[in-house]
Automatic annotation (TrEMBL):
Keywords: Hydrolase
Lineage start: Bacteria, Pseudomonadati, Bacteroidota, Sphingobacteriia, Sphingobacteriales
Single GO MF annotation: hydrolase activity
Name by which UniProt lists this protein: Alpha/beta fold hydrolase
InterPro entries: AB_hydrolase_fold, RBBP9/YdeN
SUPFAM superfamilies linked to this entry: alpha/beta-Hydrolases (SSF53474)
Organism: Mucilaginibacter sabulilitoris
Any coiled-coil regions, as ranges: none
Pfam hit, one: Ser_hydrolase
Highest taxon in the source lineage: Bacteria
Amino acid sequence: MTFQSTILTHPGLGNSGPEHWQSLWEKQFNFTRVEQQDWETPVCADWITTMNDYVQQRGPENVILVGHSLACTAIAYWAQKYNVHIKGALLVAPSDTEADTYPPGTTGFKPVPLIKLPFKSIVVVSSNDYYVTAERAALFAKSWGSQLINIGDAGHINVTSGFGDWPQGLDLLKQLDN
């Protein structure tokens, strides 16, 4: 599988470890990770500034963002502030920063922006994600103008949930690359 676009991955809170599907994809396809200065107590304004720098350096029209968890919210905030038209975004397991179950320590990530994104996007959710209800995830996807794909009982779609190499996710990313 080859990709025509510039793929930028963006992990969520705590970063993605070496066995996470984002890390495996980066190694396999030479994707670039948006490296944030603070993965443990992030500030939204810092994250979106860094994300914008990465996107602008690579030419937005050919960029696809691949966000996991908190990064999905960051991408929505980035789109709200910068309104940059990129090729697309794959938004996996968006977490609900307004939920009681969301871990403390983040700044500026709530409320979750309920805006139409200015680019094509796919939101992938699970029916039993601890960090977001299926109903809230559907609201995010609808508000963002995203295609919603619920992959069933898949937890937070991370290593803990059994998602290392994730070929179905790559197939969804390929849809945005066309």
